Amino acid sequence: PTRGETILEVKDVTRRFGGLVANNNMNFSVKAGEILALIGPNGAGKSTMFNQISGVDTPTSGEIIFTGKAVAGHDSREIARLGMSRSFQHVRLLPRMSVLENVAIGTHLRGSTGVFPAAWRLDRKEEERLLAEAARQIRRVGLEAHMHDEAGSLALGQQRIVEIARALAADPCLLLLDEPAAGLRFKEKEALGELLKKLKAEGVAILLVEHDMDFVMGLVDRIVVMEFGEKIAEGLPEEIQQNERVLAAYLGG
Ligand code: ADP
Ligand code: MG
Questions:
Q1: Is 216 contained in some domain?
Q2: Measured in angstroms, how far is the CA atom of residue 14 from the centroid of ligand 1?
Q3: What is the ipTM metric for this complex?
Q4: Domain enclosing residue 65, as ranges
């Protein structure tokens, strides 16, 4: 997709769990090469939205259009093949395996829900292709010096970046990140922010859920704010920072 073109459209999406409305008539879109943050208090419905976009969950009603195709309720692997990749809130690396192996396995399992298969048998050609692709993504995120280190030996900030390298396999045009800065030190957040800016410059769109407002404000192009399943505001970081409804939601008013 070319920069500025809409690649993801969430249209009138509602998700009910019994009597609870986790997402109520949500509307927003993401453009190619844009960084958009989805923010809001705990329980606002952000993860539910992510799950529906990535095909882990199905809307009760509404449409999700990704690269021109209606994907709501479609299989997560099929959506991944269209060019969408997600990371999860908690690190899901295999700590005793190398960074390279972790990224290569992720490449192999792309779009599956992360269950390590009993038999990871590949022919040699396929294995070499996966390792080469993994090495390419590790260089892309700047972790080549740690390619052969055990993933569990890296600092948390680097492990998050390994997960991003894994999500980048096969060059998605949209990356979904669930709280990528959570628990990171200041310097690690800076490094993560720089990486996300670099990916954006390469044309990757990023949709992130994040609680760290300092991190969000210095990084993203636009913000969508949710409360009780609804969109209560949308705009530029500086607009959102001054929005009274947003301030009230965050101050518990
Ligand atoms: P957030 O990620 O913004 O903290 P969630 O999307 O996780 O919010 O949750 C929104 C609301 O939906 C919460 O009240 C939560 O308890 C509820 N919810 C989420 N998933 C389920 C589910 N599978 N079954 C029932 N209720 C759920
Ligand atoms: Mg959540």
A1: yes
A2: 13
A3: 0.98
A4: 1-83+172-253
* Average pLDDT for 16-40: 97
The pTM assigned to this predicted structure is 0.91
DSSP conformation class of 150: B
Quickly tell me which residue has 């095909």 as its tokens: 55
| CB of 42 shorter than 6 A to ligand 1 | yes
Residue whose CB lies within 8 A of the most ligand 1 atoms, among 10, 16, 20, for a mutation test: 20
d(CA 38, CA 246): 12
Structure tokens at 62: 């509404």
* 165 backbone dihedrals φ, ψ, rounded to 5°: -60, -40
User: Based on the domain organization, do 160 and 176 belong to the same domain?
Assistant: no
Percent residues over pLDDT 70 in the chain:
91
| Distances 117 to 121, 127, 135, 201 between C-alpha atoms, Å | 9, 15, 22, 35
